[in-house]
Amino acid sequence: METVEQLVSFNHIQVQLSGGAPWGFTLKGGLEHGEPLIITKIEDGGKAAQCKKLKVGDELININGSALYGSRQEALILIKGSYRILKITVRR
To answer: Transmembrane ranges (predicted)?
Structure first.
């Protein structure tokens, strides 16, 4: 039988994408919709696909060292402000 800690454990994955936008993934959700920020699509051949670390369903929790508070608009501003390197942390 699994413990509560095992049932609620998450993996935090740190990803660094290089080369500038487009980064090759799509987000859905956010506080505006009462949902977590979730990666819903990874573009074939895009930077997110090439890194092989991101998966559809990952929850975005940090961008370039800034903790996210759940707003999709906030996340988009931080992503668009990343010119050469995008560092993100996701929870799986």
So the answer is: none
Contact 37, 66 (CB under 8 A): no
In single-letter form, the type of residue at position 57 comes to: G
Q: Are 90 and 67 in contact (CB under 8 A)?
A: no
What is the spatial distance between Cα 87 and Cα 80, in angstroms, rounded to a whole number? 12
Q: Which domains does the chain have, with CATH numbers?
A: 12-91 (2.30.42.10)
Contact 63/78 with Cβ under 8 angstroms? yes
Which residues have C-beta within 8 Å of that of residue 20, sequence separation ≥ 6? 83, 84
Calpha distance 52→34 (Å, rounded): 29
Length of the chain: 92
CA 41 and chain centroid, separation? 11
